[in-house]
Amino acid sequence: MLVICKHCKTSYRIPDGLTRIAFPCKRCQAEVSYSADEENSAEAPCAKDMSVQRRAANNPTTPELIAGIPVEGNSMQTNHPYLAWLEVNLGAIGRNLDLVRGLCPKSQILAIVKTNAYGFGVKEVSDYLFSRGIRDFALAKPYEALLVKRANPDANVLLMGPSSECLRELVEAKVQLACFSNSNRDAIAKHAASSGVKVQVQVKVDTGVHRLGVRHEHAADFIVETARNPNLELKAAYSTFSEVKEVDRLQWRRLCEIREAVEARGVNTAWHIASSASILRYPQSHCEFVRAGIILYGHYPNPEEHELKRVNLEPAMTMHARVIQVKPLHKGEGVSYRLTYTAPEDHKVALIVFGGLDGFMGKKVILGGRFCEVIGNLTQNHAMIHVAPEMDVKEGDLVTMMGCQDGLEISPAELARDSNLSIYSVHARISDKMPRIYFDD
Ligand SMILES: Cc1ncc(COP(=O)(O)O)c(C=O)c1O
Q1: C-alpha of residue 190 to centroid of ligand 1, in Å
Q2: Which CATH architecture has domain 90-308?
Q3: What is the pTM of this model?
Q4: Strand 176-179 vs strand 334-335: parallel, antiparallel, or unpaired?
Q5: Could you state, in order of their start, the residue ranges of all structural domains in the chain?
Q6: Beta strand 52-56 pairing with 59-66
Q7: How many Cβ atoms from other residues are within 10 Å of residue 337's Cβ?
Q8: How confident is the model at residue 176 (pLDDT cuts 50, 70, 90)?
Q9: Mutate to test the pocket of ligand 1, among 104, 110, 112, 287 (most ligand atoms within 8 A of CB)
């Protein structure tokens, strides 16, 4: 549910089940309040104290006091020149991290910050997570692994993909490398021997996804050989679930059998297989490590988990622009390339500089206190927005494409559903060139 500051119109997300809240607005300090008991409750004033009351899940009459409420990015950032930008709330990532820690109390968290931290910014996110106590990171490309390791030399940085493109640099930087085949392990060991360093490695086991990894039938031997190689230091063995329930069960059994066989031969190491879906779904699969990816950024890995909402994740990114031009569109006039949209009546059109190449994918935006439709063909760098004749929209007005504004919300999950994309793809599509503004509420 969203609650809006009546003074400056900043929107706040409040967790389900709260019956009464009051707190100072982060932007203007006016009191923002909500009481379920009052009529028009979303905007009604309530108690002046800072307490937040939540109905206890199994006893609706017992209020449970909690200290504060999470805030979704609301374009709180006004002191910048951008006409289109993303806001990343590191505080939300921190709260998601705390939820993961609660779900996996016995495991260490290996943060997945690959692909520019899913578009959230690899440098900023890994630095922030490091400051929050995370010491293990995993990435897919050598240049990103080098970036994270060089920025945080005390971190353990695992390159999950191949290392052959720049083995020397990776070894010098002390990045942990994945061993997933005889040839890639031999190349790493040979380089280690010639440079006189012991390289830290993790063995990737293919328990059934048939992607990268040593096939499960050969995995125990491979792990033992790796552990006994004098030029390598085995730090962990890991696998990936297929996220098909029955196959996951089989994969887990295989991994347990491999572990038993390896340990029976005197090799003890750390293990990991759980990523976001299994962090949420299979506590028994949380080994020494869990690999937390999309969950840290505030998203459930699939629509099923989104429905179940086992924990209250907070999306950590919002997407905004400013109107750069508004003009009238007369009945019968078309808009954008090939004029596929024709105005059914006189109205206005507003332009923003956030198009398809920038990562825009929605069919509507929030502008002037309501949802407005995107009209005409989306172009590479522009989107055109329908503005009703009575609306007073002007150049410079704030537009939200993803996030909250004026008590309305376009959630990333909704964008994924409407665009027929996974939540991973929604973020992957956003251009790395878009300015990102970081804050920690
Ligand atoms: C090997 C591996 N582990 C873990 C993850 C993280 O997955 P998720 O984002 O679902 O947590 C990924 C992401 O693609 C991955 O490739």
Answers
A1: 29
A2: Alpha-Beta Barrel (3.20)
A3: 0.86
A4: unpaired
A5: 2-66, 90-308, 317-439
A6: antiparallel
A7: 10
A8: very high
A9: 112
CA triplet 246, 179, 228: central angle to 5 degrees?
Answer: 110
Q: Give the side-chain half-sphere CA count within 13 A for 153.
A: 2
Query: pLDDT by residue (tens digit) across 389-426?
Result: 999 999 999 999 999 999 999 999 999 999 999 999 99
**Ligand 1, atom nearest to 140 Cα:** 16
Predicted confidence at residue 16, as pLDDT, reads 65
Residue pair 11/2 in contact by the 8 Å Cβ criterion: yes
Query: 294: CA distance to ligand 1 center in Å?
Result: 8
Say whether 317-439 and 90-308 share the same fold.
no
Pocket of ligand 1 (CB under 6 A): 112, 160, 240, 275-277, 291-295, 301
User: Which residue is associated with the tokens 């979704």?
Assistant: 72
Question: Per CATH, the architecture of 317-439 is what?
Answer: Beta Barrel (2.40)
Look-up: residue for tokens 């390598």? 232
DSSP 192: H
